[in-house]
Amino acid sequence: MTTAVAPSAPLTAEDRCDRCGAQAYLRVELATGGELLFCAHHAREHGDKLREIASAVHDETHKLTDKPVPAAD
After folding, report:
1. Which alpha helices (H) appear in the chain, and where do they start and end?
2. Exposure string (b/e) for 44-63, b if CB count within 10 Å is 16 or more?
């Protein structure tokens, strides 16, 4: 038997850190079910422990440093 897992939806500005309420940039899907969301600060602070208990990690912290591309006219 195989089980298909749907990819995580991209994080939006409405997704908030479970620790402090700031915008979330990291989604941790737990092996036991459920998920946790973290801002970049708390993702860095707790990242090693989170990866130990995660079945999947969706990291979008790169959005904080990527430079936007100007739109073509």
Report:
1. 40-53
2. eeebeebeeebeeebebeee
Residue 37, number of CB atoms within 10 A of its CB: 20
Residue with tokens 């500005």: 13
What's this model's pTM, rounded to 2 decimal places?
0.77
Question: In sequence order, which residues have a C-beta less than 8 Å from that of residue 65 and are 6 or more positions away?
Answer: none
Q: Do 25 and 19 contact (CB within 8 A), yes or no?
A: no
Q: CB–CB of 41/25 below 8 Å?
A: no
Query: For every one of its 73 residues, what pLDDT tens digit does the chain have, with 9 covering 90 and above?
Result: 444 455 578 999 999 999 999 999 999 999 888 999 999 999 999 988 988 889 999 999 999 888 777 888 7
